[in-house]
Amino acid sequence: MAARQARTYTAEEVARIVMDVPEDSDVSDFEGEEGDQESDMDGSNTDSDESYNSASEIQHEAIPPLESDDSESDFQRNETTNSTRRRSSRGRSRGRGARGTAARGARSRSPANRRDEDNSAIRWGNRDENVVVSFPEYRGQHGPITLLEADSEPVNFFSLLFPEELWDILVEQTNLYVAQKQRKTWLCDTNKDEMKAFVGALYFMALHRLPNFDHYFSRDWVFAVPAMQSVFTRNRFWQLWQNFHLADNTRQPAPTDDAYDKLYKLRPMINGMKEKFEHSYNIGQKVCVDEHMVKGKGRNPFKQYLPMKPIKRGTKIWELACSCCGYLYDFQVYTGKSGGNAEKGLAHRVVTDLVAQLQDRGTVLYIDNFFTSIPLLQELSELSISVVGTIRNNRKNYPKALQDKNLLKQMKRGEFHTVASETTVCTVWKDTKHVSFLSNVHSSHGNCTITRKLRRGEQVNLPCPPCAVDYNKNMGAVDRHDQMVRNYAIDRKSRRWWVRMFVNFLDAIMVNAYIVYKENFRIMNMPPPQKPPKPLSHDKFMAGVIHKLIGNFSCRRQPGPAPAMPPPPFHGRDHDSVNLADLGLLKFGRCHHCCIGVKGAKRKETGFGCRSCMKRLCHSGCHEEYHRQNNIF
């Protein structure tokens, strides 16, 4: 048998063997997929050079020998080998940059990881195909869970949202903190009535806004608020503000302990609020997840700095709210990296944690481009939760057909293009800038328009995709809740970061209570007999809550009638207080009890005195006091 000779392959044949490409397909298609995987690792788009590098560098791997024709000349074999080496070295030299490093990292991954990426990939169709998607049916309930009477007082709705056990915690921990610090100026231990009046006073100061706490207790009529002065003295209010607590500091775990909690000082309030918010109201089908910032420049272990935001420094809170009314259903305070376990990303974890209780209802979630990603949409689809959101064009598995620079450059304002994959539609729309949307509840095309104002002030109707209209209508749920909070926010400065969070939570409780009140009022007054009555406004609702929280409490001594005095003893007429003019003393003189012989006493003259002692004594007080000291009576 003749000895078999090793055949020398071209670069295209090598790539076809290694990547297991069928003979009737083009290698460039598979090279593009390899380039996509590499670009997903570093989060940026890659050129065709990287795919070429990946194909050429695979020459170093072992290739199984196959039969070849004996007629192939040595010259052809040497020429093919030299060209392959040149391409391989050129690919390695180009791979020394950032893109090359990412590509090498992508090739070093295990086959198991590559299979996971293939499972999460999505196959997009052709551009501008007409895809019809139906909106999901909602299988949940919407509205207050506990219905109250139509004439219920505002404080009843406030009690539904405010944890009742929190009053006892505030009283207990405040008294404990004062005892630990040994405050000498602390007058007496607080109680539940005083703590309710203190919280009511904070809400009162949100309605009557003054620059400083001291202004409410000022003697200047321009600043003074007599209603507040009748409830608290200035010193007592400051004592409560400086010493109220929610947790025992001596029991807080150390930072090195596994049970360490950065929100330890607020944990009782946070847990109570989450439970009350969830069991008091059923949010609707359309919900929104967004961030909220609480102002604060003091010492804070998880303070954020966002220079492009209106509130640049403070604490970040992720919030889930109902799009129809702005009800805050759940929230999560961002305290930095949680745990050492690998995760799919901060945005992915936040969304999945907040919507975990909304699965299997047909919920539609609206999020912005910070959260939106195709893996998140795929994971939430398995939980019967749809997603509508803006998406960044450098996200993983973003359709290449919508990244064409020439296509984007030629688009005019109001034009849009779509690419679909089953029920998932990705859209790029040209407004003032290019905006990309990702949705699995909207069709690719529709007769939708949006109003825009030109530079000259003229208004025009621009065509837009259906997902853009729905997104603009339902995305502002968290912003709507924040707007209602800012109308009557307590918002007082404090060096203690958790105090700023405490008053922000008080504002959130009040706003949620008002939303529940309005929905309860609407339901209890349907169908209207004649003309439906109007619910209370936000400020009047707060006033009703303040009236009940403060009630008749006052830390001042209660004014009232003078106590009954015993009748004066009968002493006869010998030592009565008489007008000395009747006895011939026509001139006024100093009192012998309070002026004469008293060092530093203010001169005080009187015309009265004792007829028997012949002493000038003030008619009120000094007369009986003088005789009592001298044992006369």
Write the layout of secondary structure elements.
Elements lengths: L10 H8 L8 H16 L5 H10 L16 H21 L3 H10 L3 H10 L22 E2 L9 H8 L3 H17 L10 H16 L5 H4 L9 H4 L4 H10 L23 H14 E2 L3 E10 L8 E2 L7 E10 L5 E6 L12 H9 L8 E5 L6 H8 L3 E6 L14 H6 L5 E6 L2 E7 L3 E6 L8 E6 L5 E6 L1 H9 L2 H11 L9 H28 L13 H13 L26 E3 L9 E2 L14 E2 L1 E3 L11 H8 L4
Parallel strand pairs: 3-7, 7-8
Antiparallel strand pairs: 1-2, 3-5, 4-5, 5-6, 8-11, 9-10, 10-11, 12-13, 14-17, 15-16
Helix pairs in contact: 2-3, 2-5, 3-4, 7-19, 7-20, 9-20, 13-19
How is this structure best described in words?
The protein is of the alpha+beta class. The protein is built from 21 helices and 17 strands. The protein has helices spanning 11-18, 27-42, 48-57, 74-94, 98-107, 111-120, 154-161, 165-181, 192-207, 213-216, 226-229, 234-243, 267-280, 346-354, 374-381, 405-410, 466-474, 477-487, 497-524, 538-550, 622-629; strands at residues 143-144, 281-282, 286-295, 304-305, 313-322, 328-333, 363-367, 385-390, 416-421, 424-430, 434-439, 448-453, 459-464, 577-579, 589-590, 605-606, 608-610. Strands 3, 4, 5, 6, 7, 8, 9, 10 and 11 form a 9-stranded mixed sheet that branches. Strands 1-2 form a two-stranded antiparallel sheet. It has a two-stranded antiparallel ribbon with strand order 12-13. Helix 3 crosses helix 4 (74-94), helix 7 (154-161) crosses helix 20 (538-550) and helix 13 (267-280) runs parallel beside helix 19 (497-524). The radius of gyration is 40 Å and the shape is elongated. The model is unreliable at 24-119 (pLDDT under 50).
